[in-house]
Design brief:
This protein is of the alpha/beta class and about 375 residues long. It has helices at about 40-45, 55-75, 80-90, 100-115, 120-150, 175-185, 200-215, 225-230, 255-265, 300, 340-355, and strands at about 1-5, 10-15, 20, 30-35, 160, 190-195, 220, 235-240, 245, 250-255, 270-275, 280, 300-305, 305, 320-325, 330-335, 335-340. Helix 1 (about 40-45) runs antiparallel to helix 2 (about 55-75). The structure holds 5-S-methyl-1-O-phosphono-5-thio-D-ribulose.
């Protein structure tokens, strides 16, 4: 079900037995929300980019599991474990690169395993509570990232970012955009340069819209204009988000990030990654191991329904790329800065928090038959 609504940057709203998502494919032209009632619908919304951004898809997946848990209760409750396992499976596989998706699903599965003696309704209630907690915590984490990162932008008159890492991509406030927001709130005055981020245009459609709504000066540029912009001296910092940070500090993020990191290094500009600790994946040792999602050819061949590439021509459409650690100045997390040498600093950051302990089964494992 979809409906027009007053426009806010709230990507995800939980209504007890349904999940409302702002359809990000339609922004900024139209504010339309979709209402979902099953995990399968949530997985489809994640795959088709109704909701996108690493933390946001993790939060949506957590709610998706809660939806199917409550449906199992409505069906008598006997199938709650199998149904939650099946939901976890379909949601964890919806997109491969962002580790936050798997992290959120695993966290929900742990909650299910905690209370086998509870009634089905009690277990569903606990799962719903966990999804809400994941959502609330994300906003708190983003504000902490903003607080730690904002001082890095003091004195900058131009900050370049890529893709969308704001409220729309998270539970609220944002990671890289949270850092930018906080710096602005603290009184630093700069212009944000938002790369348009082909082919989905997260930069021009979403980031520029979010910043403009808040009165933060923003300029859109085509992705290929970043080099000359930096050469002209307009940019003093690049700030991006991440979908996964490997144990060696390699950063998977929206395709184009790697090129921006090389450009930043060539121009002596710091390159910052803002990401929650749940984005670190110590089980992935090197960047080359990070699975990169390839998306349909027609996302490149068509722009808003207008054909810009012949249907007969092949398309290369990776959604993400991997930036080697040598180009990353620092990763800004909710606990502070993680700096090179990354093997050591990441092991300490993640080891201390226990965010990604274990590493055996990918999530709940398949449903018992
Ligand atoms: O394909 P998307 O729009 O989900 O890609 C999003 C990004 O690459 C973001 O930079 C990343 O998920 C961090 S969002 C806080």
């Amino acid at each position: 079900m979809s409906s027009a609504s007053p426009c806010t940057t709230r990507a995800i709203a939980w209504h007890g037995r349904s999940l409302e998502l702002l359809d990000q494919r339609r922004l900024p032209r139209a504010c339309v929300t979709v209402t979902l009632t099953t995990a399968a619908e949530v997985a489809k919304a994640i795959r088709s980019m109704v909701v996108r951004g690493a933390p946001a898809i993790g939060i949506a997946a957590a709610y998706g599991i809660a939806l199917d848990a409550w449906r199992a209760v409505a069906d008598g409750g006997g199938g709650i474990e199998a149904d939650v396992h099946a939901a976890a499976d379909i949601l964890a596989r919806a997109r491969p690169t962002a580790v936050h998706l798997r992290w959120a699903v695993e966290r929900m599965c742990k909650v299910l395993e905690e209370g086998p003696e509870a009634s089905p309704a009690g277990r569903a209630r606990r799962l719903e509570q966990e999804a809400r907690t994941i959502h609330d915590e994300d906003v708190t984490i983003n504000r902490a990232i903003g607080k730690h990162g904002a001082p890095l932008l003091e004195g900058c008159s131009g900050v370049l970012t890529h893709c969308n890492t704001g409220s729309l991509a998270t539970g609220g406030y944002g990671t890289a955009l949270g850092m930018i927001r906080r710096a602005w709130e603290d009184g630093t005055r700069f212009r944000v340069y938002a790369c348009e981020t082909r082919p989905f245009f997260q930069g021009s459609r979403l980031t520029a819209w979010e910043l403009d709504n808040e009165g933060i000066p923003v300029t859109i540029l085509v992705d290929s204009a970043a080099a000359s912009l930096m050469a002209g001296g307009a940019v003093q910092a690049v700030v991006v988000g991440a979908d996964r940070v490997a144990a060696d500090g390699s950063v998977a993020n929206k395709v184009g990030t790697y090129g921006l990191a090389i450009l930043a290094a060539a121009h002596g500009i710091p390159f910052y990654v803002a990401a929650p600790l749940s984005t670190f994946d110590p089980d992935t040792i090197r960047g080359a191991e990070i699975p990169i999602e390839f998306r349909p050819a027609d996302e490149v061949r068509f722009v808003e329904g207008v054909q810009v590439g012949a249907s007969t021509v092949d398309v290369h459409n990776p959604a993400f790329d991997v930036t080697p650690p040598r180009y990353v100045t620092a990763v800004i997390t909710e606990r502070g800065l993680v700096k090179p040498p990354f093997e050591r600093s990441i092991a300490m950051a993640v080891g201390r928090t226990g965010q990604r302990e274990g590493g055996g089964s990918p999530w709940c494992g398949p449903a018992e038959t």
